[in-house]
């Protein structure tokens, strides 16, 4: 069975080093909380709000040990008025036997405001 694992994190500014650091942190947390082996990841789609354009977040994923061959793609999120700025969203497609309700979706920094209904215990980190 393939499941989607969602995650989101915000950055304080459109700076390449912060985009890469925060994306890496988010993906590692998503993998850890869901016990994901990169061999079981079918693909990762990363979107950013349009105010992020100084770096490709996918580069951060490709630098994680054993994630080199995981297909990763970046795109921009819809530019909806009033939406959360400086936000990076990740959709990880994983082959797993874990039930849908047992998937841990990870929201960090200001992105915790996006889906408070999906937050579980200590899976959240605010800046």
How would you describe the overall organization of this protein?
With 127 residues, this protein is α/β, with parallel strands linked by helices. It has a single domain (2-115), classed as RutC-like (60s Ribosomal Protein L30, Chain: A, 2-Layer Sandwich), CATH 3.30.1330. It has two helices and five strands, in the order βαβαβββ. Strands 3-2-4-1-5 form a five-stranded mixed β-sheet. The longest helix has 18 residues, at 16-33. Its EC number is 5.4.99.5.
- The first-level CATH class is given as Alpha Beta
Radius of gyration, in angstroms, nearest whole number: 14 Å
CATH topology: 60s Ribosomal Protein L30, Chain: A
Beta-strand residue percentage? 25-35%
> Strand-and-helix sequence, N→C?
EHEHEEE
Strand segment count: 5
How would you characterize the largest beta sheet? Answer: 5 strands, mixed
Count of separate structural domains: 1
The global form is globular
CATH superfamily: RutC-like
End-to-end separation in angstroms reads 34 Å
- The multimeric state of the shown protein is single chain
**Structural category:** alpha/beta
CATH architecture: 2-Layer Sandwich
Q: Biggest sheet: strands side by side, in what order?
A: 3-2-4-1-5
Name the poorly predicted regions.
122-127
The helix content is 10-25%
How confident overall, as mean pLDDT? 92
Please report the number of helical segments: 2
């Amino acid at each position: 069975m393939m499941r989607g694992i969602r995650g989101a994190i915000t950055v304080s500014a459109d700076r390449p080093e912060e985009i890469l650091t925060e994306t890496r942190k988010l993906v590692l947390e998503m993998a850890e909380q869901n016990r994901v082996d990169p061999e079981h990841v079918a693909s990762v789609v990363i979107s950013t709000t349009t105010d992020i354009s100084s770096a490709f977040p996918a580069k951060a994923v490709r630098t994680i040990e054993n994630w080199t061959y995981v297909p990763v793609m970046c795109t921009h999120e819809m530019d909806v008025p009033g939406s959360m700025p400086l936000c990076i969203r990740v959709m990880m497609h994983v082959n797993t036997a874990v039930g849908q309700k047992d998937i841990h979706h990870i929201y960090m920094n200001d992105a915790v405001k996006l889906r408070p209904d999906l937050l579980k215990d200590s899976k959240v980190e605010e800046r």
